[in-house]
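Exercise 7.
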Amino acid sequence: MSKMRCTGIRKDGQPCQANGLEQYGGLCLAHGAPPEQAREWRSRGGKNSATAVRRDNRMPEQLKHALDIVQDSMDQLAQQEPTPAICNAISRSAQTLINIRRRADEEMELIRAEEIQAAAADIAGAHPDLDVLEAAADIKARLDRFSSEALVEQGYAEFKASDNPDDPPDVVLNDRGRLRFGFYDLYLTQKMLTDMESIITYHNPDAHGALDSSHSINILNMHELDVQDMLTALAHGPERPVDPVTGQPFTKVPLQLKVRNESGELVRCDQDPQERLPELLDRLRECRSDLEELSEGKQVT
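Solution. The predicted structure, written as tokens, is:
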């Protein structure tokens, strides 16, 4: 399998020599992983840093031998009478030493990157072979794309031209898909709660008196019933699109799918309505309780 180099830049300004991964946009694990994961992986692989590898005598033997020869030559030259020829020889040796050390650092960085990748695979319980991981990620992406396009065929999504003309078109949930998978209720509930909680935050009974909140409470009651009905439909509804990969009804949308959020922006479906809506139900009930207190002229704490 062909490998691509990481597109990241090292701290010294030189191109990274590690293998780039497609899931990180061409970056390696060290450059592309989220900061919190990278810190954990580095702590696992840190004991194998370039300095530690040299100390453990794991530097490539040919580089180690070359370093020893050049260093010995410089030491012998330094013991002789300083003449222009000797000084020039020492200068050339020093430059050679610098170049060898730079090459050694590149080799050590590559070793370190591979060890960090192995540590990451160990933490994730994944196969330690990077080629296997890359192949698995590619297969997963293809399966996600296949499942996403199946939703287009079943009438729950549509194709939209990607912003990058070199990329395939995006697969986007249409109105029917947003309703069926719960995103319509999710975004509507989030927006409504934001508005209601704003009222609660800024209403001061001491300054404004009791709040006439009967209309808002009725809205919350009706919306709570709608959310409960949606959760039932998500789990047991009769109209459930089928994932051709598993042959079973979709339990959640593929990660490659996109949806328009409450602001109309096209985003990845990174929220699962089946998980988020129960949390919002709790917020609905807290909001209703706060509104009842405000309607009695009480200060919400």
